[in-house]
Amino acid sequence: MIDVEAFKRMSYGLYVVCSGNQEHGNGYISNSVFQVTAKPAQIAACCHKDNYTSQIIEKTGSYSISILHNEAETSVIDKFGYSSGADTDKLKGMNVEYGGTGVPVLLNEAIAWIECKVVKTIDVGTHLMFIGEVLQTEVIDESKSAMTYKEFKEKKQRMAPENAPTYIEDSPSEESNGSSGRYQCQQCGFIYDNEKEDTPFEELPDDWQCPVCGAPKSKFTSI
Ligand SMILES: Cc1cc2nc3c(=O)[nH]c(=O)nc-3n(C[C@H](O)[C@H](O)[C@H](O)COP(=O)(O)O)c2cc1C
Questions:
Q1: Are residues 13 and 78 located together in one domain of the fold?
Q2: Closest residue (by CA) to atom 13 of ligand 1?
Q3: I need a labelling partner for 81 at 20 to 30 A (CA). Which of 89, 104, 123, 153 fits?
Q4: Distance (Å, rounded) from C-alpha 172 to C-alpha 218?
């Protein structure tokens, strides 16, 4: 038997993985970044094949990892985690530095960053696992600690979308039969609270979409 509750007890961090160059760069939110060896220092990043960033990493052979702090702005996570660089320039207007390979590094909301050169790509089905040798690292803020995926879910009331390896196809909150006036998107976790909005959820048009991830109204359940 596989009880998905066991997966929810695993611990993960929260990162922005970027790739590309000065002319064209992009990044996505990842909670599946981890160190695979110490000597040489190697870090793995697991990227969905449909993520736009995945194509860029394959093409350029390098990526950067920005480690987010535990009070990181929701807007930054929403931009990098729920929209695609295929549709929008996510790095436009952001605080970006470039590593030795020319890879963009996102500095917003980061406490440290790591630049990697891809040494191996493993096809794991839905995702590509990029194993990168560490070329350069920098700590940029000593005063804050890193955000965990658990903190992210609790503080931001969001959840990892379908492209994340940790995606769990169930409701993050208990569904209620009564009308609490609060509805949650089952794709990203965004909560629509009638008390905070001008239009009650029930009166929103059928083609209304989640403001965070673009999911249809039908993806919302009363909580
Ligand atoms: C909390 C969180 C964790 C995520 N973790 C991963 C991950 O580890 N791997 C992945 O491929 N996508 C992950 N995603 C989804 C991507 O960030 C998302 O699909 C993004 O829109 C892809 O952007 P891109 O198409 O510009 O590359 C995560 C999203 C969130 C919000």
A1: yes
A2: 164
A3: 123
A4: 16
